[in-house]
Amino acid sequence: MRTNVLGGLRVVGLTAGGDRVAETRLGHGQHPDVVLGAAGWLIESPAFATVRDDGALELGYRVRELDGIRPRAQAVPRDPGVGEDEVGEPYQRVAAYAVVTSERGLLLTQFNSQTHVSGDWGLPGGGLEGGESPVEGVHREVWEETGQRIELGELLAVQSQHWVGRAPAGALEDFHAVRIVYAATCPEPADVVIHDVGGTTSDARWVPPDSLGDYPLTASWRNLEVLARLRRRRADEH
Fold first, then answer.
1. What's the rounded Cα separation, in Å, for the pair 10 and 8?
2. pTM attached to this predicted model
């Protein structure tokens, strides 16, 4: 299996008082709610994402005792045209992103033709480099894709998505995406500059909140609660 986190992934459950009540490995294609649910805990909110001394990336969650049905792993979806008998190479990719706001609006980036979602928009960010922490990664990616310096806030979400599909180059992958999403502000917003020439970003913009609905977001970002809430509020106002 390929991965960009050489020390692997661990998930940790924390009580409201900060006590560690569960800790386990997050394997390829596994989801934190299912793994912690198997140990009897229900996730309430993300708490932290940090690199341990042994190189493992640790994802911490605030949890409470599970008193209902334990979450179950769902069937792994396949892209159109991928047969049930086709086997992809397992690839687990961990990436860090930021919901960046400033007096100029919300910072969005547009995907180019190197991706399967060319023309769609999303949040600035991307895959972690070897030994890089999520905090380091998101600062680097935002600068590379938009030229902005940011101040990080709270950890908003950790998405885990698993599917089988073809990479832009044509290789079949059994893909597990783990996306770590932070809130962030930009104290001194400037005109956008894309430094990562040759990357997957074709455009980046400061988008006024009341214009957010004019930008087609990829499915993963449409479902992010903080963006969905903002889109709903603006729709209600109009």
1. 7
2. 0.94
